[in-house]
Amino acid sequence: MKALGIMGGTFDPIHYGHLVTAEAARYAFGLERVIFVPAAHPPHKEGRRISLTNDRYLMTVLATMTNPAFEVSQVEIERGGPSYTIETMRHFRSRHPEADLHFITGGDAILEICTWEQSPDLFKMCQFIAATRPGYPLGALEGLRETLGDAAFRRIHRLEVPALAISSSEIRRRVAAGQPVKYLLPESVENYITK
Length: 195
Ligand code: ATP
Ligand code: MG
Known about the structure:
Blueprint: E1 3-9, H1 16-28, E2 33-38, H2 53-64, E3 70-72, H3 75-79, H4 85-95, E4 100-106, H5 107-111, H6 119-125, E5 127-131, H7 143-148, H8 150-153, E6 156-159, H9 168-177, H10 187-194
Parallel strand pairs: 1-2, 1-4, 2-3, 4-5, 5-6
């Protein structure tokens, strides 16, 4: 059974925190591929200004180009409207009926999981890889055991990744303030932003 990784995000812009996490998950869980899925309209980021979908998609393509195991899907972009992970996982489930699907998230996103649309159904469809992210200790995960129940909770796997306190918000703040973003994200993405 082939194992596939799905990494959802806004990627505004994509940075080394996303890439290191995806690569660590690929290696640790023997994933054949990691598919990056830029969100069209992240429901939890409603009311916030987000860069054009096309720009976020292109930056994600540029950033993943040097890794043969990485690819980018336009499924949420083409679907439009609010980007619900459950619908995205149904899409990959129907395309890869035999695959063992792994949804890759940072420690912050996994804690929000209970607020997601239809999260109980989501837990039946895939495994979760929760990566350490500075500022979001994975110890807080224990709190989910009661909410989710044992069976679903066992589908969450912790992954230690080298701590990178990088976020897209901080990169946007730096770009706006004219501060350097070099070495926080791939050079191709930095050049795209400058251009
Ligand atoms: P923003 O600051 O705009 O929220 P972000 O850096 O959190 O951006 P997202 O696109 O929101 O990036 O994140 C997509 C996924 O990547 C989420 O699951 C998030 O937890 C994870 N992620 C983001 N940055 C890191 C990081 N530095 N280490 C581990 N995981 C990360
Ligand atoms: Mg975020």
